[in-house]
Structure formats: C-alpha cells, structure tokens
Amino acid sequence: xxxxxxxxxxxxxxxxxxxxxxxxxxxxxxxxxxxxxxxxxxxxxxxxxxxxxxxxxxxxxxxxxxxxxxxxxxxxxxxxxxxxxxxxxxxxxxxxxxxxxxxxxxxxxxxxxxxxxxxxxxxxxxxxxxxxxxxxxxxxxxxxxxxxxxxxxxxxxxxxxxxxxxxxxxxxxxxxxxxxxxxxxxxxxxxxx
Length: 193
Description:
This protein is α/β, with parallel strands linked by helices. It has one domain (27-187): 3-Layer(aba) Sandwich (Rossmann fold), CATH 3.40.50.150. The protein is 30% helix and 26% strand. α2 (57-64) runs parallel beside α3 (77-94) and α4 packs parallel to α5 (132-142). The termini are far apart. The model has no long low-confidence stretch (mean pLDDT 92).
C-alpha cells in the first residue's frame, strides 16, 4: 500500500487505482525523488502540476510537503476518482483546498490553460505505451507554462529512451532506480534566443 511519506499528511495511506491500469511510483522511488526535490528547494510554496496523475501520489505528496497548489490531471474516470479521494485527504489536513483534480486529457488541459499560468514543479509519469513523439509533443506544450527555475520530472521505464526535449527545456540530471528512470529538466534557452 502506498502512503504519503512526509509533511502535514505524512504516514496517511493513499487509495490506489484498482486493477493494473496504472503504474504507481513505489515508495522507495518516491522517497528518493522527494529527497532530491527537497535539496533543490522547489516544493515549499510551489505551484505543482502532476500530468498522467494515476492515483495522484506525487502531487498529493507535494501538497503534504507545503506546495501552495497542486493540479492533478488524469483522464481515466476511475483513476480521476481515486485522485479526488487522495486530494481530499491532503485538503482536509491543510484546512484549505490545495490539491485540485482535473479529469482531462493532458494535451487538452495544456492547450486550454492560459499562458499566464506557470508551474514551478511538474511531474510526468505517462503510461508506458505513450510513444516518444507523443511525449515530446506534451513537453513542447508544457514549455510556455514553466516558471523561472521550474523543475520537470519525467518518470519512465528504465528501458525507455531519454525523452526528446523540446526547445526551451534542458535535462540537467537523471537517475535510475531498478525498473524506473527519472529525468530532471529545467527551462533552458529556446532556439533563436
């Protein structure tokens, strides 16, 4: 059973998405990831976006650790309902609405979000069947929504190739944890700048 590791709701169990339709981030990977993000000092007060949220575990962990607001984007109805349950847990502990759930396709959500909306921390944990060109297209749609000093974390199978980073985003680190690989990127200089 997955749980919220630290912060206001630390130790609370998370509701999981039934069946095998999602691939939850293990607590071991989540602990290592958030240790690194704490070192980057990007969580407290951040505006967080969790794309392909699944159960929302990365987003709600951010909310528990002091993010100012968290947007969970998940298209599947069952997974979106689980996101809402997990969001309610953090929102109750925070005594305010910190985590917001959007039942939407990732591409549509990014297309209809105003350009003025900027995120400080973004998680992308797309389903493995999502091919590399589709992931690259999502990353390109994300670029105008990255705040200064933002951190983008892409989680994929350790057998997946490195994402194709669009102009405006540069990888600065990667880490492998068993069958999982995390890539860390930040806003970079766009071509022509």
